[in-house]
Amino acid sequence: MSVSPxxxxxxxxxxxxxxxxxxxxxxxxxxxxxxxxx
Length: 38
Hints:
Blueprint: H1 5-37
């Protein structure tokens, strides 16, 4: 299905970046909630 190995790598990298961004956003939300609680 993959067009080329390079393109495949490119896609996986993008997915990784998106996952990392989402995780960092979640962490930021959690810390904000903690700050609000205290």
